[in-house]
UniProtKB/TrEMBL annotation:
<dbReference type="GO" id="GO:0032049">
    <property type="term" value="P:cardiolipin biosynthetic process"/>
</dbReference>
<keyword id="KW-0594">Phospholipid biosynthesis</keyword>
<keyword id="KW-0443">Lipid metabolism</keyword>
<feature type="domain" description="PLD phosphodiesterase">
    <location>
        <begin position="214"/>
        <end position="241"/>
    </location>
</feature>
<protein>
    <recommendedName>
        <fullName>Cardiolipin synthase</fullName>
        <ecNumber>2.7.8.-</ecNumber>
    </recommendedName>
</protein>
<keyword id="KW-0472">Membrane</keyword>
<dbReference type="InterPro" id="IPR025202">
    <property type="entry name" value="PLD-like_dom"/>
</dbReference>
<dbReference type="Pfam" id="PF13091">
    <property type="entry name" value="PLDc_2"/>
</dbReference>
<keyword id="KW-0812">Transmembrane</keyword>
<dbReference type="InterPro" id="IPR001736">
    <property type="entry name" value="PLipase_D/transphosphatidylase"/>
</dbReference>
<dbReference type="GO" id="GO:0005886">
    <property type="term" value="C:plasma membrane"/>
</dbReference>
<feature type="transmembrane region" description="Helical">
    <location>
        <begin position="35"/>
        <end position="57"/>
    </location>
</feature>
<keyword id="KW-1133">Transmembrane helix</keyword>
<dbReference type="InterPro" id="IPR022924">
    <property type="entry name" value="Cardiolipin_synthase"/>
</dbReference>
<dbReference type="GO" id="GO:0008808">
    <property type="term" value="F:cardiolipin synthase activity"/>
</dbReference>
<dbReference type="InterPro" id="IPR027379">
    <property type="entry name" value="CLS_N"/>
</dbReference>
<keyword id="KW-1208">Phospholipid metabolism</keyword>
Amino acid sequence: METGALVAITASVHYLLQAGTTVRALTRPGRDPASRLAWVLVILSVPALGVALYLLLGEVSPGRRRALRLRDSRAALPVTAPGIGRSDLPEQGRAAFARAEAVNRFATLPGNEARLLGNSDEAVDALIADIEAARESVHILVYIWLEDRNGTRLAEALMRAARRGVTCRAMADGLGSRRLLRSDLWRAMGAAGVKTGIAFDTSWAFARLALGRVDIRNHRKIFVIDGRIAHIGSQNCADAAFLPKAKFAPWVDIMLRVEGPVVWQQQALFAADWMGQGGDDMAALLKHAPPCAPQGFPALVFGTGPDLSPGAVPDVVGLLLAAARDEVVISTPYFVPNPGLVEQLRATAIRGVSVTLILPARNDSRMVGWASRSSWPALLEAGVVIREYRPGLLHAKTFTVDGRLSLIGSANLDRRSFELNFENSLLIANEGVTASIRARQAEYVAKAPTVSPESVANWSLPHRLLCNAAAMISPVL
């Protein structure tokens, strides 16, 4: 074949692939317009590579077989806590609770209690104490599990529990915990009787590219002891020093120790993930739910993911903002909101609600840090107060409204948590627990100087270009 004919055929094939990929990007369900536009620009402006990038990263699916297993595991499990009636939804925040209920078909449950734990080491101490007292089962699912002091202490506590006859199941994300999963410690856990599993195994990652997107992660932090105690928040199985990224340390986390019927929902999330990744059947453990505490409060666990109402996190946050009357305080390490959430934050501040956003001054992801700042001018102009936490990386994901409602869990306010990660969150209607979280937020504020509108207005042109370019690319990532 002549060179000219070969070039013509190659060009034709490329243009056909570009056209087909562009049509797919424009017609994929559930994608927001900004994401469609970003992908079309990538496909058309970067010959061949744009098509390859879309095929690798453009489809939000873990692969057909994995998706079916996860769906089947959820279908095999109940969604109603046995013997527990649904709580009346609180008047303030009713729409947010209703939206969160729709994700997993869980109901808001009454009779829950919670205690805010101390710093990272104190939170791990409390978790180990509950594991040491466990009689029946311990279940752990985390994104990051390290072989550092706290990670090893938790592994050893699980091994001791397994040796005395407690059923222990431990699952870690294949990417976030990749070092542990290849370690002697992980093998020792299995040898001691701990049932181990991997969420989204990254083995043969390149071979899996054709089957589904490989950077979909299980970012949940689930700790359930005896089906009656849950530890919920942002803490991984790791030290605050977080050695892989020590220059950003300490990692500042927040955890609640929760008892009551809502723990059943946290257990159900774990069971669905465990069974969906090939673990044994846990349905029998969901036949009973913890009793209601007489003075307990209403709460709801909801677990989101790319195949579980991917817009749920920004929807719930937006509805909480709409319910606010006096004050909203938010902390998150990764802030890359979609345009709708930016406008909701602005609207909340414009109508007179005090809105404070606490972010880390230094982010371990430069791209996220730049993209986050692109929204600052518009937020500051509307009256949102932005504070930058200085002592370390503020990893706590907290949201309080008027001292009455609070949201805590693993989800960040970024597109990855909205669309790609599997996350777990706890929505609470209680003044006491919210006050404790609000007090912790006040500690963050005390170490977080306010960002002045003048300083942002004086950003250099290159800095503004960098931030806006990162934000423009964020829908692709």
